[in-house]
Amino acid sequence: MPADPNQVLDVAAMRAAEAALIDGGIPAQTLMEVAGRALGEWARRLGSGRPVTVLCGPGNNGGDGYVAARCLMEQGVPVTVIAACEPMTSEARTARALFAGEVHAPGAFPEGALLLDCLFGSGLSRPLPDDLLALLTGLADTHTLRIAADLPSGIEADSGAVLNPGLPACNVTVALGAWKHAHYAMPAAPLMGALRLVDIGVAAVPGAARVLARPRIVPPAPDAHKYKRGLLAVVAGMMPGAALLSAEAAQRSGAGYVKLLAPARPEGVPPALVCDVSDLAALADPRIAALLVGPGLGRSAEAVARLAAALSADRPIVIDADALVLLRPESPGTAPRVLTPHEGEMAALEAAFGLAATGTRRARALALAKAAKAVVLLKGPDSLIASPGGDVIVTPRASAWLSVAGSGDVLAGIIASRLAVHGDSFLAAQEGLWLHGEAARRCGSAFTAGDLAAATGYALSAACP
Questions:
Q1: Residue 394: enclosing H or E segment and its boundaries?
Q2: What pLDDT sits at residue 205?
Q3: Is the peptide bond before 127 cis (omega within 30 degrees of 0)?
Q4: Does the pLDDT of residue 1 top 70, yes or no?
């Protein structure tokens, strides 16, 4: 396995990592052999020995394709190689020369079980020309299965932009050396299929983004009690149903004590949830380990006052939903914060903090994290986490059934519960996002936010040793 199988590199960092390997004495041709043979093996396995068509481009991605074709031929797999362009790098030219079979020019579309797309890789920054797009899509139409080498052709690696409309989806994408941001970013991610990683010897890159991994959540100590496990206070607002949903998820996510702070006891409070009607006066309790404010808060003058009171308590805090729209640079408090905006709330925060709102979602989240001095979990089908210090966590695709009302309230409750347990805002955001996705996986299809909250405890058990 690679030195860090979870690191995610941009194009510049990947090129530097490959240059470091070459400078360290590993010939570039050797790196191509490793990558190409791995691609060939994946094609052999997925195609079960049936005919494979390899589409080769002009660069080293095409060179990987020629190596893959040689590997397949050596193992008796019928292989057809189509050169979309002549090789333009010395390594690709050598790889083509070493392939003993016939290389076909673009023309008729052969039928086969599997298409191996080695047309362009992570260096592409402009759309495919019409002839190459037609070649790629035509071959995709005549093959049952498709594997992409590093990235599907027509994808921008750093942003995840789809450079051409109508690109064919792949069954498998085999990342070479390290993950790229496009593997996890919309709108490219759905075109990837299953993701696999090939080690070519790339070392761990300091400061690289990482893929969200299963957390290791330690069970309570033998002498634990409810306050040692963490007291979480949830500040309710004008629509207490959302806060109740957050509190239910929080109760199943590890905190020893979850308390709802409300001016009056709302309907539907379950017996296991304490509702403190002393309300904001309860914020003075020194045993409170973390706060959650925002779900169902509203945007009235009263909501502004409730947010200010929660921030003034200066405890580790998760700020969600309406509270994100009300947050300002001058808002009180210096304790660790987690902000959990969706795209609309992100736009409101960028306006409040004077940010440009341009660039990739990753760049925008990092800018807000630095400006707000908070961990930012930017929600969406390609959720990501950014820290004020520049750390980034990207997320594997979770269940699309999470696109249901109340799902964000559940996520906020989980993160706040984890924050109450240990006080580490960056870790709490990672744990919460993973547990949220795992709870959705256990729910199956067409679940409610209540189902999701109820499944959180089962998700937690999957993260405990």
A1: strand 392-394
A2: 95
A3: no
A4: no
Selection from 155, 82, 101 nearest residue 125 by Cα: 155
Same domain for 200 and 240, yes or no, is no
Judged against a pLDDT cut of 80, whether residue 3 lies above it is answered with no
Q: SS3 string of 413-465? A: HHHHHHHHHHCCHHHHHHHHHHHHHHHHHHHCCCCCHHHHHHHHHHHHHHHCC
Condensed to tens digits (0 to 9), the pLDDT of residues 271-280 reads 999 999 999 9
DSSP per-residue codes, 306-356: HHHHHHHT-S-EEE-THHHHH--TT-S--S-EEE---HHHHHHHHHHTT--
DSSP 155: B
Which are the contacts of 282, defined by CB distance < 8 A and separation ≥ 6? 233, 259, 261, 276, 288
Task: Give Cβ neighbours of residue 409 (< 8 Å, ≥ 6 apart).
Answer: 242, 243, 245, 246, 249, 295, 296, 320, 321, 449
Looking at the fold, whether 46 and 172 belong to one and the same domain comes out as yes
Does one domain contain both 201 and 230? no
Return d(Cα 91, Cα 29) in angstroms, integer: 6
Q: Residue 276 is part of which domain span?
A: 226-463
Tens of pLDDT along 9-60?
Answer: 999 999 999 999 999 999 999 999 999 999 999 999 999 999 999 999 999 9
Q: How many angstroms separate the Cα of 399 from the Cα of each of 20, 189, 384, 410?
A: 38, 13, 15, 15
Q: Is residue 38 domain-shared with residue 71, that is, in the same domain?
A: yes
Both 181 and 253 in a single domain?
Answer: no
pTM reported for the whole predicted model = 0.95
